[in-house]
Amino acid sequence: MVLAADYPFLSIxxxxxxxxxxxxxxxxxxxxxxxxxxxxxxxxxxKAAWCVFMIVLPFVGVLTYLIAQHDxxxxxxxxxxxxxxxxxxxxxRQASTSGGDGAARDIEKAAQLRDAGTITQAEFDSLKAxxxxx
Length: 134
Prior knowledge:
By secondary structure, this protein is an all-alpha fold. The chain has 5 helices and no strands. Helices cover about 85% and strands about 0% of the residues. The mean pLDDT is about 85.
């Protein structure tokens, strides 16, 4: 018994095409609704109006938002990406100065002070223990 004998190739192709179009539409709705809710330049009433418009007339609402707000969507996404990149860079800078490199620098400075005779061996050991503990 062949299961796919009654379902021709073009019907399979059409079903796949419809399924992927549906997935793309759902993805567009998620992206657009997340953009609507992240916007700071419109109020709650405008956000609710866009949501109702996209729920009541889904295809028209999504296409209208894409046509009307395409520049704003890309600008807001770029600003969000820049902000996230700056935050990441700041965290990396903080981690690099407070982590092992900072301790190594502190120990090196303490060793230079000890070698110059400014501090004693006991003070050096104390500074080294503090640097390693931090």
